[in-house]
Write a structure and sequence with these properties.
Elements: H1 8-18, H2 26-69, H3 78-92
Length: 120
């Protein structure tokens, strides 16, 4: 056991003597420690985010699939559907053109026409 009492200032002075604080690579050591710490924290954050949200994503996708497969009855407008179905039936019925239809491009003698005389 350590029986002698050492103050903090003496301990710091002893550490400065024993450890070489200012070396040529101190900046790069500190930078690499910070970068590796940042990478480790971002990896932990990504893993925890995926772990916490994967079950919500699976639940939401199951809900979307079940809603796509089962259309609720209140979403259907039956009156509009019947109207559309009747219009389709009317469209499929063929109509005949009457033979006594007036030809609008045939001008008779009684038709009033105007002529213009342009003099040059």
């Amino acid at each position: 056991m350590l029986t002698t009492k050492i103050s903090w200032s003496q301990l710091i002075e002893l550490a400065k003597k024993e450890l070489k604080i200012h070396s040529r690579y101190t900046f790069w050591r500190i930078t690499s420690i910070i970068v590796m710490g940042f990478l480790g924290l971002s990896t932990l954050f990504t893993v925890s985010f995926i772990y916490n949200n994967i079950y919500d994503t699976i639940t939401n996708s199951a809900i979307i699939l079940s809603l796509n497969n089962e259309m609720p009855e209140d979403m259907l407008d039956l009156q509009l559907f019947e109207t559309a179905q009747n219009l389709v039936k009317k469209k499929k019925i063929t109509t005949t053109i009457p033979s006594d239809m007036r030809n609008i491009f045939l001008y008779g003698t009684g038709a009033a026409t105007s002529t213009s005389n342009i003099k040059k």
